[in-house]
Design goal:
Strand content: 5-15%
Order of helices and strands: EHHEHHHHEEHEHEEHHHHHHHH
CATH class of the largest domain: Alpha Beta
Radius of gyration: 20 Å
Largest sheet: 5 strands, mixed
């Protein structure tokens, strides 16, 4: 079961109360004990975390709830993972630490650092399949990412852009004020972009503390090989827009023979086509529910050559065409 540490809701009760809500009622409905909130040694499911954050925004009628909660959190909620990062040599090393050890905070999420032609991009991912609508959760997570970057690079640090995978929840100016950078809505990936040179910034390296914390994290993390299907899902998301989500391409990335890849998936009770179809279904639901992306653009994001294939797929997955689904989901009549 995918869980997250109790520190993920640090500041939640106080913020909800200030906004006129009842945090105890919201926590109880989500199945979260009030005593677990703010504790690093406590866990609840990531689904419960999504539900309580989204419900708080709705109940208090606060479109910026996730961003406001993010302002009350920082690197300290990550516990020893944060300590390992801030005792690294450079910003690049710190972000690599998050990539490797964030699962000690929550195995339901991940970050990935991409060095791209126009700079660096720190991507945020939710790993649980088919999560409910979660724009507030994403904005909370992006807010925490910004706070971490500011901890590492200075309180006034401003990145290049924040990439939000859904339509704006409040006026664009609100995002400019909160993130101090350009918001890019309906992005295919959630994350923050910044100049690549910032990765070379030096930190206050503490070699002894760094090694002690890494040794501790190595003991608490389960380093068993992740399920092949779960690993492939992440890669397929990146390959679909280029039409490259094929067995040969994916097998090459994992340095496997295509037949070996197929055998691994069969051993896990699935197959390559089923994994691709499931990823497409999840992405289609998210883009139709959370953005106003055109259907032709969505078809390309899913790796379809024609929009008609998207229509047939939606009929098969959800029993309705994309236009009807978007109308239903965005009107709040159904979670899909």
């Amino acid at each position: 079961m995918s869980v997250i540490r109790g520190t993920s809701l640090t500041g939640f009760p106080a913020l909800v109360t200030e906004l006129g809500g009842d945090p105890d009622v919201l926590l109880s409905r989500a199945g979260i004990q009030r005593s677990d909130v703010g504790r690093f040694d406590a866990f609840f499911t990531y689904l419960a975390f999504i539900n309580v954050v989204e419900a708080a925004a709705t109940t208090t009628k606060t479109p910026a709830f996730g961003r406001l909660l993010g302002e009350r959190q920082g690197i300290e909620i990550l516990g020893p993972v944060g300590v390992a990062a801030r005792t690294s040599s450079t910003v690049a090393d710190a972000l690599a630490t998050f990539e490797q050890y964030l699962s000690a905070y929550s195995p339901a999420i991940a970050v990935a650092l991409h060095r791209e032609a126009d700079g660096a991009f720190l991507e945020f991912r939710i790993l649980i399949p088919h999560p409910p609508s979660h724009p507030q959760t994403v904005e909370l997570s992006l807010g925490v990412m910004l706070r971490v970057l500011r901890f590492l690079m200075g309180r006034s640090y401003a990145p290049s852009a924040v990439h939000v995978p859904h339509s704006p929840l409040s006026p664009r100016e609100d995002y400019l004020r909160h993130f101090s950078c350009t918001p890019r809505f309906r992005s295919p990936r959630a994350g923050i972009s910044f100049p690549a040179k910032d990765l070379d910034r030096l930190l206050a390296r503490d070699e002894m503390a760094h090694q002690v914390v890494l040794e501790y994290l190595d003991t608490v993390l389960d380093h068993r090989r992740p399920a092949m299907a779960a690993s492939i899902r992440q890669l397929i998301r990146q390959l679909l827009p280029a039409g490259a989500a094929t067995v040969p391409v994916v097998a090459e990335q994992f340095r496997l023979h295509p037949k070996a890849l197929r055998r691994r998936l069969v051993a896990e009770g699935t197959n390559f086509n089923a994994v691709v179809d499931d990823v497409r279904r999840e992405l289609a639901q998210r883009y139709l529910r959370d953005t106003d992306m055109t259907l032709s653009h969505l078809a390309r994001e899913l790796g379809y050559a024609e929009q008609s294939v998207l229509t047939r797929s939606c009929q098969r997955w959800f029993g309705a065409n994309p236009v009807s689904l978007r109308t239903t989901w965005q009107s709040g009549e159904s979670d899909g």
